[in-house]
Amino acid sequence: MEKKESKQKSPKDTVDAGRIINIVSHQLKRTIFFYTWKDCGLTTMQNRVLHYILMKSLGCPVYQKDIEKEFRISKSTVTEVLQLMEKNGFIRRESSKKDGRMKRILPTQKALEIRREVVENIHMVEEKLRAGIPEEDYRICLTVLKKMSENLTQEENNMKGREEMYE
User: Fold this and answer.
1) In order of start, what are the domains of the chain with their CATH numbers?
2) Angle between the 17-35 and 115-130 helix axes, to the nearest 10 degrees?
3) Are 80 and 72 in contact (CB under 8 A)?
4) Which residue, 81, 89, 119, 145, is most buried by CB atoms nearer than 10 A?
C-alpha cells in the first residue's frame, strides 16, 4: 500500500483573500488621498461619501440610510462622517417634508464647486486600479467581490441574533 505524501503549503503559497483585499483597500485609500484636492480637508471616506452625494443627489434625494446601505457601514460611522462634512461646509441637512425625523443630505455650494475635481479624482484612481486588467477579468473580479460582500452581509445578519449571547 502506497503512502500518500502530505504536502503542506508554506505560508507564502497560501492565498488569503481577506489579506489581499485588506492590502488593496489600504493602497486604494492612500492613492485616493494622494490625488484628492489637498486643501479641501476631506478624508478618504469623506471623499467617497461626497462623491456619492454629489452624483446621487443629481437624480434623487439622499438620506443617511442611503449612505449606510451604499457603503455598508454603521449608522454611528455615517453620523460621524456626515457631522465632519457638515462642520467643514461640504453638506447641509434639511428635514424631509414627508418625515421630519429624516434629514435630507444636500451638497453645499463649496461641494458643488469641487464636484468636477472629486469626480475626476475618483475616475483617475479607478483607471489606475484597472490598469493592465482585461475587461472580462475586471468584470469577473467585480462579480466575485460583490458575492463576497453579500456572503459577509449574510453572516453579519446571522450574527445579529447571537450578539446578546456575548454581552
Assistant:
1) 35-157 (1.10.10.10)
2) 140
3) no
4) 81
In tens digits, the chain (167 residues) has pLDDT values of 555 555 566 666 677 888 999 899 888 878 877 766 555 677 778 888 998 999 899 899 999 999 999 998 889 999 999 999 999 999 999 988 888 788 899 999 999 988 888 778 888 888 999 999 999 999 999 999 999 989 988 888 888 766 554 44
Phi-psi sector, 134: left (phi>0), alpha (psi -120 to 50), beta: beta
Residue partners of 68: CB distance under 8 A and separation at least 6: 74, 75, 78
**Separation of alpha carbons 45 and 79, rounded Å:** 12
pTM beyond 0.85: the answer is no
d(CA 41, CA 54) in angstroms, rounded, equals 17
Q: Which residue has the cell 457638515?
A: 86
The overall longest dimension of the chain from CA atoms, in Å, is 79
Fill in the DSSP letter of residue 96.
Answer: -
* Residue 32 near residue 129 (C-beta atoms within 8 A): no
